[in-house]
Structures are given as structure tokens and as C-alpha cells.
Write a structure and sequence with these properties.
Layout (H helix, E strand, L loop, with lengths): L6 H4 L2 H12 L11 H6 L6 H14 L5 H8 L6 H5 L6 H15 L4 H13 L3 H14 L18 H11 L14 E2 L7 E5 L4 H5 L1 H13 L2 E4 L9 H5 L3 H22 L3 E4 L2 H7 L2 H4 L7 H10 E3 H5 L14 E4 L3 H6 L5 H8 L3 E4 L13 H4 L1 H16 L5 E4 L2 H8 L6 E3 H8 L9
Parallel strand pairs: 2-3, 2-4, 4-5, 6-7, 6-8, 8-9
Antiparallel strand pairs: 1-3
The protein binds iron/sulfur cluster (SF4) (2 copies).
Length: 438
Amino acid sequence: MKTEFSLAQLADPDIAEADKILRACVHCGFCTATCPTYVLLGDELDSPRGRIYLIKEMLEKDRPPTREVVKHIDRCLSCLACMTTCPSGVNYMHLVDQARVRIERDYRRPLTERLLRAALALVLPRPALFRASMMLARLGRPLVALLPEAEQATASPTLLRRIRAMLMLSPGRLPAPGPAGGSVFPAIGEKRGRVALLQGCAQQVLAPRINQAAVNLLTRHGVEVVLVRDEQCCGALTHHLGRDGDARARARANVTAWLAEAERGGLDAILVTTSGCGTVIKDYGFMLREDPGFAAGAAQVSALAKDITEYLSGVDLQPPQHHGDIVVAYHAACSLQHGQKITQAPKELLSKNGFVVKDVPESHLCCGSAGTYNILQPDIANKLRDRKVANIAMVKPDMIAAGNIGCMVQIAGGTSVPVVHTIELLDWATGGPRPGLN
Ligand code: SF4
Ligand code: SF4
């Protein structure tokens, strides 16, 4: 694609990066076929190619985004299916990230939307606040019946529909908090490795059992696990809201905390059980590339970051205990399959450990979770969830496995089949407890 940035514009490293990305696009449109919003809405401006044109126009003309541009960028899930499909290697992720930052900086949203986004950016990365808000949401759940349902994918979602979506996503009860930062779980038997395990923010409130299963399995296989004391939210949530300053500050804090831990006790890897977070941590090296104090450290952290299944593929797991022929529908989280290109490891681990693994039809399509998307765009998110659940039902599973808490909550909202994390099944197969929903 031909671009027309001025030399002055190209002196900005972000614009230079955008220029490189835009020039790689050959307008072929292959990406439209796998884009969930294009599949649902059929509007070229809700396709990757359409959005690329809108972003090009906005950046080249260097003018504030219009309401129309914001609408179509907001509808993008950042699922990155387009990157998997694109034959030209267009890095849509870095382009749309830049567009979101520009929108956040230059576009004045309606007051209710600004307040909602500010509240999400404040609450979600802070587990204590998130826990308190979930308790409040429990009290507010009876109000769901009074609020309008998300219905039209083409309509613009109202605040009331977004509040309804938030209440619907809140759990019936909250589990007790998991172990605090600073905890160290020694290896059982001969020590074979030492890792940090990302504590996560929403996940540690909604499902501390996931990291508990990871700790159980790792220590049982000779790996010491540390929950690093000064670790923060990885920044994914605010990054996707276009709040780049907040996301970078969190990235810097984490780089400092993890490298200090690596210095202190050694770290073979920084393990992540929430693939949405993993994708962003693996991108810290890019996010902080222009920061002289952090560029090298961020690259080091990105190289250490691994999805838990990626790490376990290199560990000799104990022979599985037999639990019968349990059929598991494997839901490939977008952040894992498109963001990190991890497609086989989770399925191979599950198969090797005695589960009958079924691929889900249309597995490339997002479930609609996508960070805060199911709150901000409930209409489209619900349609994607229902489509995903219908596809899952076709393989008649006993359980659904996924590697991302956002997907787990989203899918569980549309089915009665238990939704568990891949690591819970692997823990169970190698001597841990049978996973349930709570
Ligand atoms: S598939 Fe790639 S090159 Fe083709 S239009 Fe989409 S982003 Fe551009
Ligand atoms: S990230 Fe997903 S929703 Fe956004 S343009 Fe690409 S395929 Fe479409």
C-alpha cells in the first residue's frame, strides 16, 4: 500500500513503524474472510482491510479521528485472526494499538463512555478493587431483569446494555483469595527448574484455582514456583483501552520486579496462565523499544515469558492417571493461537495425558470475550459467544478447555458444560484434584 507520510512525520518512531506496516499490505482482502466482525456485520469498514484504510487516513492526515472511525476501530476485537491469515505479514496488532492510543488522545467520547472506560481502567488491574466491585455486582444482579438485552449487532451499545453485560459476567460467588505475592513454592523431590508465575488480576479474583493447579503440577514435577512480590497487572487491559502511559508504566514495573527476582534466585521462565496477558508480555520488548532505560530489560523479559503449555511441552510429565474417556472440546483462545501462534502444544499435552481432544468448528473465530470487549460491545460479543457455544456443542464434549480466563467466563455464560483451564486438566491427570467450575 502506498503511503504519503511527510519526512517530519516519519521522524516519529511510531509513525515510521505504522508506515512500514501499511506498506506491507497489498489490499488482497484475504483477511476479511476470517475477521469475526466482518463475518457478522458484512461491512468492509468492519474488516481488517477497511480498518487499515481508516487508520492510514487518520495517521497520514494527522487529524482527530471522526465518530465513524472510532466506531469501526472500537468494534475490532484485537483477536488477530487477520494476522494469522495475512500472506504479507502485516502487523495489524501494532497498527491498531497505535490507532487506539490516538483515539484515546484525540477523540472526546460521550461522558458516560468516558466514565465507564475510566472505571474499567481503574478497577480491572487492581485485584482488591476488582474483588470489591464483583461483590457489589452480585448485589446488583437482580437488576439484570430490568435492563435492556443486547440484541442488535448493528446498533451502538448503550450504557444500560453495557451495565447489564457487566452484571451478567459477574460470578454467583467469589472463591477465597489465592496466595499473596512473595510466596515461594519449593520443588518436590529433585529440583529441575525455577519459574515465576504471573499472578494476573481478574484471574486471581475469579479463579485462583487455575494458578493453584499450575503450582501443584509444576512443584510435583520438580519446578520451584515464585509469585514475585512487586509484580503488577501486565498492562493488557489498559493497553487495549488505548491508555498507553498506564500500560507502559506497568510494563516497566514488571520488568524491574522480574529481573530483580531473576538476579536474586534465577528464573528459567516467566509463566503465564492467561494467554491475553502472555501476548502483551511477549510484546514488552516492542512496547519499550524506545525507552533507553528499559529496552534491553524488556526484551529479556519478553524472551523469558512463556505460556504454561509452551513450558510444559519441554517437561517430562508423570504418566497420566486414567480418568476414563473424557471428551474435551479445546477452545483456542485468540491470544494463544493468533497472538502467540501456540496451536498444538495444549492439545498435544491433553491428548498425551489421556483426554479425547476435539477441535471446535470455526476455531479461528473469537468467542467475543477480548478483554473488556464483552462489556463495551455486548451486542457483537453475545453473538460471537452464541456462535462459539453452538460450534462447541457440535463435538458433544464432557468438558471445555481453554487457556484464558476471559474466554472461560465468556463461554461459561452460554453453556452448562463445565469450562476449565487446560492446566487444571493436566494437574488432574498427573495426580491433582478433579477440576470443577469453583
Ligand atoms: S490479508 Fe494482509 S495484505 Fe491482504 S488486505 Fe489483509 S492485511 Fe492487507
Ligand atoms: S483483530 Fe480480529 S476483529 Fe480486528 S480486524 Fe483483525 S480479525 Fe477483525
